[in-house]
Structure formats: C-alpha cells, structure tokens
Specification:
The chain is mainly α and 722 residues long. The chain has 25 helices and 4 strands. The chain has a two-stranded antiparallel sheet with strand order 1-2. A two-stranded antiparallel sheet has the order 3-4.
Length: 722
C-alpha cells in the first residue's frame, strides 16, 4: 500500500515539473557564451556566408538579424536609463554615505594608531619591568628547586659508598636508616629520574646483604662471648657492639636471633662440660690412657669422690657461665624495652592511639608474656638468698669452724642448691623458649621423672639423625632363611628399630612418644624412597643418569624387609602399652598398606618398562624369513637383561610372578600385531614362520634361571575361531 502511494506521488511530480530538455537555452544551468556550441546555437552564423553569402537570400537574413539585434540593444539601453532615472536619488544617497563612511574610517584608524602608541609607551614604562621582575623571581625559584634536587641527587649518589663505610665500622643501624631514608626519597622526591631507575633494587639487595651480615656478626659475637675464658672478669663482651647488633636485628624484625644465641649457648655448654671432664680425667693417675682410649670409658673408671668433684667443678663453671648469659640477656632486654618505648612514644605522637603496630606485638611478647632468663635468674638469686645462706657466707662460716671437710661439703651443697635453683628456672621446651621462662618455671622445680622423659626425648631426637658406619655391609641379609639384598641405609634403619625397642624396654613411660616417632621415621623412609626412585629424584640428588631396573628391584626388596619387621615391632610395642592405648597401633596398619602399595607400584613399573619395549619392537614385526626374526631376537635379548638385573635381588617366586606378567604383556602386543598383519593359525606358511619365532622365544625364556617350568601359554596369541 505504501509503495502504491509513493508511485502516485512520483507520477504527479513528473507531470508538474517540466523536463529540463524543454527549457530555453538561456535558462539552462550550463549556459555559457564562451562555449562555441552555445554561441552558434544563439547566433546561427552558419547560415551566413563568410564572404557575404552566395545568394541574396542569405544576405537579406543577415541584415535582418543585425537590425533585430540593434533594436534589442536600443531597448536595453532605454530600459537601463529608465531604471537609473527611477533610482537616482538612492544611488546618490549611497554615494554620499560611502564618502561619509570613508571619512569616519579614516578618523577611526587615526584614533587606533594613537591608542596603540600610548599602549606601547605604557607597556614599556609600567609593565615590562614588573613582569620581568616576576619572571626573574619564578626563574630563581625554579633554579633553587633545581639546585636542591641536584644536591639531593648528589647525596643519594653517595648512599652506596656511605653504606659501605658504615658497614666497615659495623654501624648496621645507621646503614639501614640511610637505606630506608634513601628509598623514601627515591619514591617521593626523585621518582621518575632515569639515572636512578636501578638504585631502588640495588638498595634492596644491600638491605638483604646487611641482614645476613648482622646475623653472621651476631653469631660470631655469641660464639666469642660464650667461649671466652672464665679468667676474663668482664660480664658483657663489647657492650656497644652487642647493643648495635640487637638494634639492627630488632629493626629488621629478625626476632629469631635468640635461636642463634641458644644454639651457641648449647654448644658452649657442651664444650664446658667436655673441658671439665678432660681436665679431671687427665689429673687421675689411676687411669691408663694408653689402654683406655675413649673418653667415656675413662669416665666409667672414675670413683664416686672423683665424680662428685667433677660435678662440683662443672657446676661452678656453669654458675659463671649462666651469670654471663644473664648479663648479656639483660643488655638485650634493655634494648628491647627501649625499642618498645620508642615505638610507643612515636605511636602516641602520630595518632594518639594505643594499638600496637605490626611487629610490635612480637617485641611485646618478649617482655610481657614471658620473662627473660635474666629476670628468672634474678628471681632465683632472690629466693636463693632468702632460703639458704650464700656461698661466701657458708665458706666464711666453715673456715671459722676450722673443718675443711665440712667447708667443702657446705660449699658443694650451697653451689648445688644455687645451681639447681638457677637451672630449674629454665624451660625445657624448644630452642627459643629457653630464653623465656614462664612464671610457673620460676616458682616450682621439675620432677625427676619429667627430667628423665626430657632426656629420653633428647636421646630420641639425636638417634634420628643419619649416622655413617665405616663397616661395609655384606651382599645379602639372611632373615628367617630368606636372602634380602638391601642397601646400607636399611641396615641403619633396622639398627634404629632395635634402639627404639631397647629404649621402650628401658623407659616404658615414653612408649607412645617413641611409637609416634617410629611411625614418622617409617613414613619418611617410604616417601623418600618413592621420591628418589619412582619419582626419579635420584637423577638430581646423586647424579644418576637413569633409574635402572636393578634400582627398582633393590628398592622393592628393601621395602619388603621393612614390611617383614613391622609386625615384630608392633608386637613389641603392644606389650608396653595399656589396653586403652592400643588404638595408636593403627599407625602400623596404615604404614604396612603404604609399603605394600609402593612395592606393587615398583612391580608395575618393571612390567611397564618391558611393555613399552614390546610396543615399540613388535609394532615393526613382519612375518618373513629368515627365522628367528630380528624382532624376536631383540625381545629375547631384553628379557635376558631384565632377568640378569633382578634374579639376584628378588626371590624365585617373585621373579616368576614378574615374568608371567611380562609374558602376558608380550602376548597381548604380539596378538595385536598378528591381527593387524592378518596372520592366523591356519597351518599356512606365515603361521609356520610365527611358530618358529614363538618357539625361539619360549626356549630362550625358559632357559633363564628359575624360569624353566614357567608356563608361558603361548597359544593365546592366536585369535579364537568363531
């Protein structure tokens, strides 16, 4: 409907609007007399002769046209004159207005020129000077800022040499403060400067280096402080150096530095005991050091009085040793308190709040939740002074009585009591907690049974470490009439089992703890074996080129030996447990399952190795002479290598089961290849060639040791007839 309406409108417009072709030539848009075609159309001179015409008719037409044009010219001139006469007044008015406008424009131009001249004078006299002064002020300000930036850049450029200079004098805190300030300047005021683009990362690396230097220096200081001679009367060694180190460690949040001090303290304590023992043993003439070489054997020959004198000497040295530790930790405690106080003042000034900033809570714990050992020792000394006479008073009283033996007994008793009070204040927990004492460690002593349990746990911990043996293990381990080819690590593991069982016999109270540790040891051995062999971790750890079938078989046999001992160990531990504790024995069930799964995975890996070989070799098998084929020769060669690698490691029944699985894989791939080649057991030539190859394979496999009676069941390679 819409299209019909549009078509009607179009037709109506065509009828109303004239065609452009019908327009007069004078009304056309392209009418130009310069165009020769248009000129000839308007003035048809082609009808006239150039020389005046050949006939009278053309001449008459030409004269008529000339007269007509002259008439038109006269008409146009008359019309123009008439129009001018009608508009003469307006024309003369426009002319006069034009003259007046020109006069006014001339006056305006003069006024503008005058204004410009005056403005130029004002600019020269009143504006240029002040504007130049403002410009100079801005330029000077920019130059000052630039000079400041350049000075700041020069100072930043000297950061690294200055840090190195501070480090050479062990000014770790100053070096760290300089690095922190420089990093802040780089981020805020010198951000985006191209020449400093790598300085930030360099400062971070220097900060990490300083962290290591502080820890190393503190370790060196701790070792020097704890191992110096007792003839040195100074309580604290290089106090300023210690304070500087502690400030640096606290600033870098290295709060585990007490662990370092703890380790060094334990080593120094062992050294003190050893030196005292060596000194005491060397003074005993009854001991023949040429016959009795080991120190522990020499100590067993000491008499009770000699033992008592040795303990007294050790305790006296330990009192001096702990006094030095107390003085050192007092300095550390004061530094921590000073840092906390400084942080609190800074926090109050900044925000007026009392909440701890990140990291301050850890520092606060050192002084709020627990006591430093120096505080514990002060408390122990206070209780010792109120509960018993001091060592000096006892000695004076003993000397007055004139009894040397009584003096020695009293002095030993006092020293022993003071040492007991001092050491009872120390916690028995982890490494760090040895420096912090709970209030209840301070006010009560540990019972003898707790000390025994603690010492037993320490013994367990140290027996867990890898220990080396000079004696080379034999090739096989004979257990219940069965040979086990194992590595030396398993022998060491069995020895640890025996030591654990002996510990349970000696100290039944730690049976549950020993069982847990033994379970962890068994799990670790299993997981580590899996990582090194099945996970191929031994390639990186010990540099093996590849994990061989012999490695796999050896690991399997080691695991089997451990599985053999697990029920024996379980039965032994079960006799030491209460019935309500039997539930903890379930660890052995889980561990046994994990070991058996690992052994099965190793067997599957051995089969998978041969399976991959069969797939590669048999995929290229072709049934053609000569026989036996090269393919079957390679298969038999690899089977012999596999047997050679494992037959001395695995028992006969396991070897047979493994080769049965390998034979099943071989038959599957051979059957697939024969089906692909279209060879069937029809008694034909190709069937005969395959029978020769199969016979060669069967003969070679059954020629291997312990596989003579192995039923290979080779007819399964043929497709069943339907």
């Amino acid at each position: 409907m819409y299209l019909l309406q549009r078509e009607k409108i179009h037709e109506r417009c065509k009828n109303i609007c004239p065609n452009k072709d019908d327009l007069s030539i004078f009304m056309r848009p392209d009418f130009v007399l310069n165009d020769p075609a248009t000129f000839n159309t308007v003035l048809p001179w082609s009808h006239f002769s150039v020389a005046g015409g050949k006939n009278s008719r053309d001449g008459a037409s030409s004269r008529l046209l000339q007269e007509k044009l002259s008439h038109y010219l006269d008409v146009v001139e008359v019309s123009i004159a008439r129009q001018i006469s009608l508009r003469s007044e307006a024309f003369f008015h426009a002319m006069s207005s034009q003259h007046e406008l020109q006069d006014r424009l001339r006056e305006t131009a003069v006024a503008v020129a005058t204004l410009r001249a005056r403005t130029a004078v004002m600019d020269r006299v009143m504006c240029r000077g002040p504007l130049q002064a403002l410009k100079d002020t801005v330029t000077r300000s920019n130059c000052t800022k630039l000079h400041g930036k350049l000075k700041l850049m020069a100072a930043v450029q000297q950061t690294q040499p200055t840090v190195q200079l501070l480090l050479s004098t062990s000014e770790f805190v100053g070096a760290l403060e300089l690095i922190a300030t420089t990093k802040e300047v780089l981020q805020q005021e010198l951000q985006g400067i191209h020449s400093f683009r790598h300085l930030g990362s360099q400062l971070c690396e220097m900060e990490k280096l300083i962290d290591k230097m502080i820890v190393a220096d503190f370790t060196t200081y701790s070792r020097s402080d704890l191992n110096r001679s007792f003839e040195d009367d100074s309580q604290v060694l290089e106090k300023d150096r210690l304070q500087s180190l502690v400030f640096g460690l606290l600033r870098q949040r290295k709060l585990d530095f007490l662990d370092i001090y703890s380790e060094e303290m334990m080593q120094a304590a062992k050294g003190i005991v050893r030196q005292c023992v060596l000194r005491s043993v060397s003074q005993i003439e009854d001991i023949d050091t040429d016959t009795v070489v080991k120190l522990q054997d020499q100590m067993r020959l000491m008499k009770f009085s000699q033992w008592f004198e040795l303990l007294q000497n050790v305790f006296e040295h330990f009192v001096l040793f702990l006094t030095r530790i107390k003085a050192t930790l007092s300095v550390i405690r004061n530094v921590v308190l000073e840092v906390l106080d400084s942080c609190q003042r800074s926090r109050m000034e900044d925000s007026g709040g009392s909440s701890l900033r990140p990291g301050e809570a850890e520092l606060a714990y050192l002084t709020h939740e627990g006591l430093f050992i120096s505080d514990a020792l002060n408390e122990a000394e206070r209780r010792s002074s109120t509960a018993a006479p001091s060592k000096t008073q006892t000695q004076t009283r003993a000397e007055t009585s004139g009894s040397d033996s009584a003096s020695g007994t009293t002095e030993s008793s006092s020293s022993r009591e003071q040492t007991t009070n001092t050491t009872s204040s120390l916690p028995t927990g982890g490494t760090t907690s040895i420096f912090f004492c709970d209030l209840k460690s301070v006010h009560q002593c540990l019972s003898l049974s707790a000390v025994c349990v603690h010492e037993a746990n320490c013994f367990i911990f140290f027996t867990d470490k890898s220990r080396t043996e000079d004696k080379k293990p034999s090739d096989f381990l004979l257990v219940d009439g069965q040979k086990y080819a194992v590595v030396g690590t398993v022998l060491l593991l069995i020895r640890i089992f025996l030591e654990y069982c002996q510990c349970v016999n000696d100290i039944p109270s730690i049976t549950t703890d020993m069982l847990t540790r033994l379970a962890d040891l068994l799990k670790h051995f299993n997981s580590r074996s899996c990582q090194l062999v099945l996970g191929a971790g031994a390639l990186q750890v010990v540099g093996l080129k590849t994990i061989t079938t012999k490695n796999l078989a050896l690991v399997s046999r080691c695991l089997q030996l451990v599985v053999h001992y697990i029920p024996i160990i379980r039965a032994h531990f079960e006799t030491k447990l209460q019935p309500k504790q039997y539930s903890i024995l379930r660890h052995f069930d889980h561990i046994t399952k994990d070991y058996n799964d690992h052994i099965a995975e190793i067997s599957a890996k051995l089969v998978a190795i041969m399976d991959g070989l069969f797939e590669r070799v048999l995929s290229k098998y072709e049934v053609k002479a000569p026989m036996p084929s090269l393919c079957f020769r390679n298969v038999c060669k690899q089977m012999a290598k596999m047997h050679e690698a494992i037959h001395d490691l695995l028992p006969e029944e396991q070897t047979q089961m493994l080769f049965l699985r390998i034979n099943t894989s071989f038959k599957m791939h051979l059957k697939r290849q024969l089906s692909r080649l279209g060879v069937i057991n029809d008694g034909g030539p190709q069937h005969g060639l395959v029978v020769v190859d199969v016979a060669f394979y069967t003969e070679n496999v059954q020629a291997l040791r312990s596989l003579e009676r192995l039923d290979l069941n080779m007819p399964e390679i043929w497709e069943q007839k339907r």
